[in-house]
Amino acid sequence: MVKTIFIGDVQAGNYDGQEVELMGWVKRSRGSNKIRFIVLRDSTGVIQCVVKRDAVGDDSFEDAKGALIESSIIITGMINVDERADGGHEMVATSVAIVGSVNPEKPFPITESAMQAADGGETEFLLDNRHLYLRTSRMTTMLQVRSTVFGAIHNYFRDLDFTEYQAPNFVAGAVEGGSTLFEVPYFGRKVYLTQSWQLYAEAAMPALERLYTIAPSFRAEKSRTRRHLTEFWHAEMEVAWATNNEIMSHGEGVVRKIASDLIEHRSDELESIGRDLDLVARYADNPYPRMRYDEAVETLQGMGVDIEWGQDLDYSKEKVLTQDFEVPHFLTHYPKIAKPFYHRVDPDEDKYVLCHDLLAPEGYGEIIGGGERTWSEEELLARLDEEGTDREAYQFYIDTRSYGGVPHGGFGLGVDRVCSWLTGADHIREVIPFPRDSRRVSP
Ligand code: ATP
Ligand code: MG
Question: What is the pTM of this model?
Answer without folding.
Answer: 0.96
